[in-house]
Amino acid sequence: MYADALESMTRSRDLYREAAEQAHQALAALRDAPAPPPCRSSSGPPPARPPRSSS
Fold it and tell me: What is the C-alpha end-to-end distance of the chain, expressed in Å?
C-alpha cells in the first residue's frame, strides 16, 4: 500500500514538473514572438469609401 502511494506521488510530481517546463517554454516562445497588429475597434469611425464613379 505504501509503495502504491509513493509511486502515485512520484508520477504526479513528474507530470507536474513536465507541465511546468512546457508552460515555461510556451511563455518564452510567446515573449519571443512579434506583437500582433492592433485590432480595429468597432467604436471608431468607419473606413473611408472611395468616391463613386460618374458613369
Answer: 89
